[in-house]
Design brief:
- With about 325 residues, the chain is of the alpha/beta class.
- It contains 14 helices and eleven strands.
- An eight-stranded parallel β-barrel has the order 2-3-4-5-6-7-8-11, surrounded by eight helices. Strands 9-10 form a two-stranded antiparallel ribbon.
- Strand 9 and strand 10 form a beta hairpin.
Length: about 325
């Protein structure tokens, strides 16, 4: 599926209530443009939209509506487009850690463990034979609409076989990405390092609140293509200090920062500008130093009563645009 210029304009205009928070040029032009003074304001998708099973087409439509021209795109919507069988796809859900915790799930039964193992093997078999031509269709669809897939996010990496790790890089290249990302693990980094070096592609490991500056130092010492996805809000909540020194020290190995606002000392997610995260300082540092680091919005605060997710996402875009202006 390809979008004509007229269709792209219709996509943009179809979301005027949310897009009205943005400068007109960001959503009324033929293609979206969220690059402000050299810094790409991106989106963690489909995570930000609240449903991990959102299709690649719907993700693109919402990005165009919001004026987003760069994304961190999870692999599963791409794999669904490529033909991953429905029974192997993730179940709908997820996407807002601002919600109240539901408590730990009960431990799986032996039958559930066996079923999960069989499913992982079926996914592995599908991946090693996956039609990458379909991935290139996704790339063209996005690029025709003005949205660059800069980073591809993979979930469940600890369960990946070596041939699946190889697949992560070949798929990312087919999508035109400059980096991949996954959850933080020193052991995973040691496994992935050789594949990253082979493909000369950075891997941005996403750290939560438990990750300290010393842990980042240890991680990046593993190999030259092992990098970091520094989460500004998690870092502030977990370390009760600014992430700016870490960004400055490791800027050449940071694939992207996750932009969210939290309070220190394990504090909650807040609407942008209401927490204690130095979002503006961090974004302006990236801008002024001209570092190739995407400013990736990760939406995790509660949607206020009377509002909706797209309206709030438009507000976060506006906040970042004004910070970088």
């Amino acid at each position: 599926m390809q979008y004509t210029r007229r269709q792209i304009g219709k996509l943009a205009l179809s979301a005027i209530p949310a897009a009205s928070f943005l400068p007109r040029a960001a959503w009324a032009a033929d293609k979206p443009n969220s690059k402000v003074n050299g810094v790409v304001i991106g989106m963690n998708v489909p995570y930000n939209f609240g449903n991990q099973a959102t299709s690649a087409e719907d993700i693109l439509q919402r990005c165009v509506q919001l004026g987003v021209s760069g994304v961190e795109l999870r692999a599963r919507p791409v794999e669904a487009f490529m033909g991953l069988p429905l029974n192997l796809q993730p179940q709908p859900g997820g996407g807002n850690r601002g919600a109240a915790p539901a408590g730990p799930p009960p431990p799986p039964t032996p039958e559930q463990q066996a079923a999960a193992k069989a499913k992982l093997e079926d996914i592995r078999k599908w991946r090693v034979a996956a039609p990458l031509s379909k991935a290139r269709e996704v790339r063209k669809m996005y690029e025709d609409a003005g949205v660059m897939i800069e980073i591809v996010k993979y979930d469940g990496v600890p369960d990946y076989s070596n041939d699946e790790l190889e697949y992560t890089f070949t798929l990312a290249k087919a999508l035109g990405a400059r980096a991949i990302s996954c959850e933080f693990s020193t052991d995973d980094a040691k496994r992935i390092a050789q594949f990253a070096a082979k493909h000369r592609m950075l891997v941005g490991f996403h750290g939560h609140a438990e990750v300290t500056p010393a842990i980042f130092d240890e991680l990046l010492a593993i190999g030259p293509y092992i990098g970091a996805n520094v989460d500004l809000g998690h870092f502030v909540a977990g370390n009760s200090m600014s992430p700016v020194p870490v960004i400055t020290k490791h800027h050449d190995r940071i694939t992207h920062v996750h932009v969210k606002d939290r309070k220190m000392h394990g504090g909650p997610n807040m609407p942008f500008g209401q927490g204690e995260t130095p979002i503006i300082e961090a974004l302006r540092l990236i801008r002024d130093k001209r570092w190739n680091i995407q400013a990736t919005i990760e939406f995790e605060y509660r949607v206020p009563e009377g509002s909706d997710r797209m309206t709030e996402l438009a507000k976060t875009m506006k906040y970042c645009r004004e910070a970088l202006a």
